[in-house]
Specification:
Length: 218
């Protein structure tokens, strides 16, 4: 028995080393799987959702700012914003459906020319209905923000300022969400959508104010 104890003592480090190697191997495999994940698979629905939400927010907020440039009453702003929500959501859905369906037809035609008719190839084809639904819902979600936020604000200046503030916060949120889901630079994404939204609202407000002050009756 006394002779066996040193042998057991000598074998323990090798077992521990083997377990360490196994754990390191599992960690490396996990990291490799994360690195090999193709984030471009998210591009279709992510593009439609982010584009729809951004367009809904910017277009309706800009439309409300434009009406607010010549009308101080709350009713015209809300009616214009609601009309912009409905029209924009329908336009985005139809536009995405047609665009993605055209892309799908092109890819199918190319697959037939190349005689690539494998089942996995069919599953990766773009889905027009999915893109249309994502765009319409995202547009509506973005457009609701300035509408609901300013619906109960009677003061003219506060109402316009609130539309700009809410739109700015949501633009940053959309830019952050798009960057996180797509694993792209966050600051660049947020700054891009924020500046674009500010420019759209400023141009709409300024041009409508200019036309309205030129004597056009509304």
């Amino acid at each position: 028995m006394a002779a066996q104890r040193p042998l057991e003592h000598q074998q323990r480090p090798s077992v521990e080393i083997s377990s360490i190697h196994v754990n390191d191997h599992e960690k490396n495999q996990h990291q490799l799987q994360e690195n090999e994940f193709d984030y471009s698979q998210r591009a279709q629905w992510l593009r439609a959702a982010v584009l729809g939400a951004n367009d809904g927010l910017v277009s309706v907020a800009s439309l409300m700012m434009g009406i607010g440039a010549v009308k101080k009453e709350i009713k015209p702003m809300l009616l214009a914003g609601f009309a912009g929500l409905v029209a924009g959501a329908c336009s985005m859905a139809i536009g995405e459906f047609v665009s993605v369906y055209t892309q799908r037809d092109i890819e199918i035609a190319q697959m037939k020319r190349d005689q690539e008719r494998e089942e996995n190839g069919r599953e990766e084809l773009p889905n027009p209905a999915q893109a249309a639904m994502a765009s319409a819902l995202a547009f509506s979600a973005g457009a609701v923000v300035p509408l609901v936020g300013s619906a109960f604000i009677r003061d003219y200046r506060v109402r316009l300022g609130l539309v700009v503030a809410l739109a700015s916060m949501m633009l940053v949120a959309f830019g952050t969400a798009g960057a996180v889901l797509g694993r792209t630079p966050m600051v660049k994404s947020c700054v891009r959508v924020l500046i674009g939204g500010w420019m759209a609202m400023a141009l709409t407000f300024g041009l409508t104010k200019l036309i309205g002050s030129g004597g056009l009756e509304m």
